[in-house]
Amino acid sequence: FNERKRVDQIYKIIRPVDQKERWVSMIGECEYDGNGNIHRMIGTVQDVTERKLAELELKKHRDHLQELVFDRTIQLEQAKQTAELANQAKSAFLSNMSHEFRTPIHAILSFGKLGYEKSQIKNCDLAKVNQYFNDIVKSGNRLLPLINDLLDLSKLEAGKLAFTMAK
C-alpha cells in the first residue's frame, strides 16, 4: 500500500554550473512505500526568474514611491507653515491698516459735522469753520496715500500689477 503526500509550492534560488542564479518553482507529490520511505517523487520544476525579478523590481519601486510620498509630505507641510505665517502677517497688516484708516476717517467725519453745524449758525466764526474744513482736507490727504497703497497691494496680489525691485 502506497501513501501520497502533496508537497506545497516551493520557490528556490539555484545556480546551475557556469550560469547565473535562477529562481525556480517546485511543486509535486512524494509517494511513500509501506515502510515510510520515499518510493518516488512526481512533480514539476519551472523557471520563474523573470517573474521573481519583476516582483523584486516592483517592490523596489514601491519602496521608492514611499520615500517620494514622505518627501512630498514634508514639502507640503513646509508650504503649509509658510502659508500660515503669510496669513498671520496679512492679518497683522490688515489690523494695522484698519487703525490707520479709522483715525483720519474719524477726523473727517467729526470736523465735517462740526463745520456743517457751525456754518448753520448766524454770525458764525468763519475762521473756525475754515479750520474745520482745513482739518478735513489734511485728514483726507493723509488717508489717500494709504488707500492708494492698499489698492496697489491688492492689484499686486491679484497679479494685475507689475512689481520691479529697486534700490
Low-confidence stretches: none
Rg over CA atoms, rounded to whole Å, is 43 Å
Got a strand count? 3
**Which sheet architecture does the biggest sheet show?**
3 strands, antiparallel
Task: Please write the string of helix (H) and strand (E) elements.
Answer: EEEHH
Distance between the termini: 102 Å
Share of β-strand residues: 15-25%
Shape: rod-shaped
The computed structural class is alpha+beta
**Overall average pLDDT:** 82
Helix content: 55-70%
Spatial sequence of strands, sheet with the most strands: 1-2-3
Counted by DSSP, the helix tally is 2
Any chance you could write out the topology, listing elements then pairs?
Blueprint: E1 3-14, E2 22-32, E3 38-47, H1 49-119, H2 126-157
Antiparallel strand pairs: 1-2, 2-3
